[in-house]
Write a structure and sequence with these properties.
Structural class: alpha/beta
Order of helices and strands: HEHHEHEHEHEHEEEHHHHEHEEEH
CATH architecture of the largest domain: 3-Layer(aba) Sandwich
Radius of gyration: 21 Å
Largest sheet: 7 strands, mixed
Distance between the termini: 50 Å
CATH class of the largest domain: Alpha Beta
Amino acid sequence: MSVLSAHHGLLDSLGQRGRLRGLAPAAGVDFASNDYLGLAGSAPLRDLAAAALASGVPTGSGAARLLRGNHEAFAALEAEAAKFFGAPAALYFGSGFAANLAIFSSLPQARDLVLHDALLHASSLDGMRLGKAQSRAFAHNDPQSLRDELRGWRSEGGVGRVWIAVESLYSMDGDFAPVDALAALAEEEDAFLIVDEAHATGIWGPGGRGLAARHAGSERTLRLHGCGKALGVQGAFVCAAPALVSVLLNRARSFIYSTAPSPLLAEVLRGVIAHLAQDGSRREALLARVAHVAARAKAIGLCPSGSQIQPVIIPGDAACLAASARLAAAGLDIRAIRAPTVPKGAERLRLSLTLNPSDAEVEAALDAIAALMEESA
């Protein structure tokens, strides 16, 4: 028997259930990426990269930041990010996944409780598994469910600190968290509030500073800002009180034991943030597109999400995959999202709005989705 027999069996099982994944080049008009502001392949970013290279900024860091990898570009970037997001301090990670692992494995302590939204990202859940605190889910976007879970834990004898973990904009449903209500609850209950702003950063909130921007100065609020989505580069910032940032620097294994990100990309990202602080035209263009698509979505029988992420529910793996394949044949890259990423029975097409398609291509996508819905009615 092959030493890989169990793994072959796993792959066969996934294939039989239509769940086997593979990698393929991007093709078709982009309605699948998170490059919301169309920056990732843009001329401004190429110019920033060329200028950074010309000034001698290296492409690689060569070491972890606590060794020799702490290039001056990182300090400059973190200062720019803290200023832009109104944060007391910021720490740059190579990915949002690494940042969430760091937050949840390092900050909540053994007697603490993490109360998280039921739809919180997998990276945060993995961080909780590595941490010492207890964790419990509360009903999606439901402050009363959160309050009930929190007070139930305390009535059972829980005496540690409570950490409330949410996303400000959820990546599969495209809906917004009631951030202000959650912040008020955190204040009332003497809890910390962790807000993952990955899909809001650069778009939502004042100047694209996120939906929790008004709470940025609070010691009890920690925010994660993604850099590989609307900002078009790579990584994530943890924005928090200096003491929390210092704990991450000293205790977070995904920071301590990772080679530092590219100083070149850090310098490009600093330029992106400075640009967005001065020029909101891309953000305004995207928000106009979101409003237009919301009106069209309602007209064809969809419930508009109100954000740049519009789900089109098509229950069943086979039906959802077939719809995505049909759209791909028409030159439209709109992906099928299936369990376990979304609940079984809530499979969907995820229409992601960016500035990459033309207005005509957006209309073509909406027309194609309308045709699919008419046929399935």
